[in-house]
Structure formats: structure tokens, C-alpha cells
Amino acid sequence: MPPHSVQYRPCMQGLYRHIASHHWMPILCYCLFLFLMGMATNLSAQESISINADQKLLDESITQLAIQDVQNLLANACQCTVNTNDTKAGIQINLPSTATQDKFDKIIHQKDANGVPHFYYPSSNFKWESQTKNEQVHLNLNTTSYAGTAAALYALLQEQLGFRFYHPRKTIVPTWTEFPISDNWTWEGKERFLKRGFHLHTMHPIELTEALLDHNFPNGIEMVHEYIDWLARNGQNYFEFNLLNSVDLKKWVPYSKQMVDYAHQRGIIMGLDISLHMIQQKAFMLYQNAPASFKSKRKQILANLNALQEANWDVYNIELSSTEYTSGNLKRREKLKKVILDWAAENQVKIMGRAHVVKKGEAVLNYSGASQAQDAERGVMIHTVMFYEIAEEKAPVYGNANLRHMLDLMDKEQPQRETWYFPESAYWVTFDNSVPMFLLPYLSARLNDILLMEQKGITGHLTFSSGWEWGYWLIDWSIARWSWDYGTPAHALDSFDLIFENKDLLKGVNDLLNLQTTYLKDQELMRYMVAQSVLDEVPKMFSREFHPRPRWTYKDLFRKVDALVLDSLKTEGILPLQKFSTEGNTLLQKTNVLNLKTKEEKAIWEELKDGIAITHLRAQHRHACLSAIYHKRMAELDKILKIDHQDDLKKAAQYRADALQIVRKREAEYAYDKTILTTQRPGHTSYHFGYLFPVTDLHFWEREEAQIKENRWGFGFKSIWNIRRIMGISK
């Protein structure tokens, strides 16, 4: 920066002359003006920055693309020149020689200390050190891979220089008055998992479903590349999504090769989720029409794998059963699995498979003898759902008291095959963002699980992602950051804190997180907050519990139960819902007086606040609907009572109207095309609408009111689900 003396020396000489002639006031003002102008020049004319790298780094795509991206980002922040290998720049960012750098090229199988085969990815750990030499600030990087160089550059920007890569379409770029890093500074990043990334569940109509599956989707490949950039900027190295049988395979494979090639250029492993012969939700099948002979199945499987592999995928995550909850013919399945594993070995790809969250004892992953030796080549992803931790005491999902049987399965599988953890950051169907609710306990659950997985030495962490609106981008971004250890203790709201740097706001959100944890998880109010799924309302012989649900059906509460059950409903549901919403609104109102620095911060907090506020309104709406059921049934049991449940329904309608105002406000700010997200439309999935279609008119809320008004409780009443299409019975 130009020294201040260059700016104010002429001024001081003039000042001395004019003081001598007694005309000191005008020149003093003039000098003050020049001095301040000099200061302004000093603050805006930032030093130039140079990123120094040898030619191999500049030629290798992983580092080349990262360096170019970082150059542009830094230039926007400092409003200065950012070059490569400029020895005169004031800030020197020195990248390591490639002499010892390893490169991810293709799936290479290695065995760990226990003889378990894993597919290899080079370490991305890094360390930065700074020092000042000849009035230049030097930032020196130490890492051993191209991927480590790229990860280190992006981590430097996000964790140290004020950039925030929080959303695929939104980035906070800081404005500096001076370079934020001082002399004699050291900082390092260590990966918690060798493989870390995201599974976009494109069986559901989320933001990128059509862009990923439709080769003709407008700007589709650019949207996918945009997301791949987000992964790279957040130090992720794995990406997969579901392929559906609704694609035109001949046209889709060349289209998909563009995204695979670009991901590889960014150092990202590409996986594809397919099935052997799964009939649910249009899953892509390796064989169709259930041919009778093994030979014909084998022929179809190999033909499809060869066709897909023209795009150069690295991993196939293959569902081996016909449905999510059946095992099928195990003997036949083993023979077909060997066909796949033999093909994978020849083509240097990795086969993975998931262990679903089923009822305890239903998971089929146990093999013996030759079968177990063969299956060691097939990695497993241990899946958990919703905002529950794998080890916590209460997780009333899929007919279980908790998910600890999945943890037991993980402990059993880890010594004999590559084992990853596969949790969710949202659960679209009737649980969170489709209602909508913004559930803060996802943050604490995912962090606690990550720390547990790191402790257990789990090598891979893959997040099942189901949409980013209504604040759910915060969950994905936090998980991405937590896949790294940056030397300071992680906490559930540290990504939130990274954006706002407002301790009062952080305390307020922490109080809201604790409130949701206490009421929704510990006191199990989620049993009442969720919308009813189809399987909650079918006849009992077919009923299966997915998300938490009340001890009684709403049909029985409205028509059959006695006063004792109604008292239990009041104690377990109605009164706690009222307390939760009242206390939550009080806490949220306290944040209204807090000052935020920038327009970006205000916009982000507005979104998160709306998600929290509509969660409180959801509790008020459920309180009103349950009160209507309670008062209607009590009036039937006690003819003396003169309580009109219609008053409760009027309150429910008003809460819904208030919530719709928030929906309209948020829809105006959706990051992707609102038409794609919120309307009924044909698409590649079994759901012919966008994933936020149930939100646009608060379908589930209105349906719950209508059920009470019309005494209709069957799964087909005002249903938006095409059950036959979802189950694979019809197209």
C-alpha cells in the first residue's frame, strides 16, 4: 500500500507556509481533505495478490479450476489484481510442488490393516503457515495431493477470509479493508472422512431432479455444474443421485458424461444409484420384465452396465431387492450379484449398497463362507432417517424405539467390508420441508453422528439430501463443513455463527434449537406435528409406521375413544403443543430487535426466521385441530357439555391463513424456478409435481381441517399421491 507520507507531505509544507502568513484555517481544511483522501486510497487500493504454482498444478484440472475460481473470488473481495506467479505482489500464496502429489484417477482397490478392500482416494489434509519477508506476506501451503491443494484454497477462503459457500446459487463475498491474515500464523485442516459427499434423492422431484435426468432440460448441465462447484468449494469429493427408468438411456448417457467429466476435473468421485430390479418409484433396473432364465437376466445386466459405463462412473450404489423392505430370492440374487461384482472388477468401479432403516432384525446383510468373501468387495452404506441420531434413546421411526440396531449392524459390517454412514438432512414425504417445518435438531443430530463416525473410523460419509428451501441448505452446508476438522471444537450452530457473527442472535437460535429438541424430540411432539402418510391411514393389516405417529389413529380419536384416552391426548399432545408454540414465539420475537450488518445477513435470517415461525404456526394449527377432535368427541361422550368444535376449526383456518402469508413471501425468494418447484407437472419421478407443491397451498394443513369437517379418514381423501405409480404397478 502507498505509505501515508506520500499523500500528506505536500500538505504539511503548505501548512507551515500559511501558518506563517496567518492564513492557516483554509489550508488546514485543505490538508485534512487531502489526508482523508489519502486514507481512502489506502483502504481501497488493496495490495495485489499472487497465487504461485508450478506448471503441473496450473495444468492439472483439479488445481487449475480451483486456482482460477479462487483468483476470481479474491479479486471480487479485495478489488485488486490477483495473478499467478507474480513475484512483486504484496500477498504471496505459495502452493506446494507437485513432486509428491498423488492424483485420483480411477477406482483403485486397496486393503486396510484388516484385509478389507477399500477404493482409494488420496489424502486431502493440509496446513497453512504465514510469514512476512521483504514486506510481503507469504502464505505457504503444505499438502500431498491435487485434491488437498484445491480443498486448502477453498477452506482458506471460507474459514479464514470471510467467504461463505453456503448455497449452490448463493455465495457471500466479503469486502476487505486489509488482508485478514497476519504474520506467524498457522492453520490446518484434517478430513474426518476419506470419502465425503451428497446423495441427491432424485426419486423425489427436488431442485436438480430434472436437470440431472432430462437431457433436454433448459440449462440443465449448467445447473449440475453449479452444484458440483458447490461441492468442490466445500471440500467434498463424492456425488451421487438416483437414475430412474424414465430416462431415454441412449440420449441420457452422453448427457451424463458431461457432468461426470466435469466432476472428475474437479476431483469428485461420481456415483449412480440404480437397482437390480426394484419396482418402486421408477428406479432404474438392470433387468426388466422379470425374464425367467438366469442367462437372459445376465445379458440385460451386462448390456445396461456397459451402456452406463460409457459415461465413466466410478461407483454404482445398487439396490438388490425388488422393494425397499423385501429381500427376494436370496440364492438367485447372490448369483446375479456375482455377475455385477465380476464386471465391476474388470471395469475398475466400486459397487456399494445400502442397509435400509427397517424394523430390527429385518436387515439382510449377513453372508457366510464363499458368499461373504465375495461380498467383501461390495461396500455398505448404513442408512438412518429424519433428525434422529443413530445412537440416541428415542427415535420412533419405522416401527422401532430407536436406531441403535443400525449402529449394531455398522459395527458388525465394518470389519468385513467398506462401510459408510448414510444419514438424512431432510425427509421430504410428510415430515419436514413438505409440511413445511424447519427442524433445527437436524443440526445437532448430524454433528453428533459425524463425531461418532469419526471416532469409529468410518471411512465414508454420504448425506441423503431432499431439497434446500425453507432453510435446509443450512443443514447440508453444515454437514459439508463438519466433514473437516479445522482445529476448533465444532458445535451445532457454528455455520450459523459463521454467517452472522452475532452472539445475541446465536444465543437466541440456540434457545430455539433447545426448545425444539425438548418438545419435538424428547417429549415426542413430532408424533402430532407431522402430516399423515398413506400407511398411517390404510387398514391396520397393511399399516406400517415410517415417521412418528400418535398412539391412536385420528379416526379412532374422532369416533371411538373414551374420556380417558382423550385426557391422554390432551396431556401428551394438546397442552404441550400450545406451550411449545407460545414459548417459541416469545423466543423468536426477541430476535426482532437485533441488528444485522449486511443485506445478505438480513435476507438469510429472514428465510431462517420464516422457517422457524411457520414451525410454530404448525404447532398452533395442530393444537387447534386436535382441540376440535377432542371437543367433538367429548361432546358426544358428555351430552351436558356445550362446546362447539367449530371455534377450534376457525382458529385452525386462521393459523393456516397466517402461514400462507409466509409461504408467499418465501416463494418469491426460492433459488430455483418456482414453477418447477411448486406446480403440478409431468416429470421423471413418480410424483407429477414439484417437491414444494404440497407447501404452496398448505395441502396437509387444509386436508386435516377437511377430515374433521367431513369425518373422512381414509388415505384416499384429498390425496395427492398416485399410489399405483409410486409402487411401480402403473406408469
Describe this structure in words.
An eight-stranded parallel beta barrel has the order 11-12-13-14-15-16-17-18, surrounded by four helices. A seven-stranded mixed β-sheet has the order 2-1-3-7-6-10-19. The chain is built from 26 helices and 19 strands. The model is unreliable at 1-46 and 364-370 (pLDDT under 50). Strand 13, helix 9 and strand 14 form a beta-alpha-beta unit. It is globular, with a radius of gyration of 29 Å. The protein folds into four domains: 4-44; 49-191, 2-Layer Sandwich (Chitobiase, domain 2), CATH 3.30.379; 195-492, TIM Barrel, CATH 3.20.20.80; 510-713, no CATH class. Helix 1 runs antiparallel to helix 2 and helix 7 (220-233) packs parallel to helix 8. It is an alpha/beta fold and 731 residues long. 47% of the residues lie in helices and 13% in strands. The termini are far apart.
List the helices and strands and how they pair.
Layout: H1 4-20, H2 24-44, E1 49-52, H3 55-59, H4 61-78, E2 82-84, E3 91-94, E4 109-111, E5 117-119, E6 126-133, E7 136-143, H5 146-160, E8 164-167, E9 170-172, E10 186-191, E11 195-200, H6 209-213, H7 220-233, E12 238-242, H8 249-265, E13 269-275, H9 294-308, E14 315-319, H10 330-347, E15 350-355, H11 369-375, E16 378-383, H12 404-413, E17 419-422, H13 441-456, E18 460-465, H14 472-482, E19 484-485, H15 494-500, H16 503-522, H17 526-529, H18 534-537, H19 554-559, H20 563-590, H21 599-637, H22 646-667, H23 674-678, H24 693-696, H25 699-710, H26 723-727
Parallel strand pairs: 1-2, 1-3, 3-7, 11-12, 11-18, 12-13, 13-14, 14-15, 15-16, 16-17, 17-18
Antiparallel strand pairs: 4-5, 6-7, 6-10, 8-9, 10-19
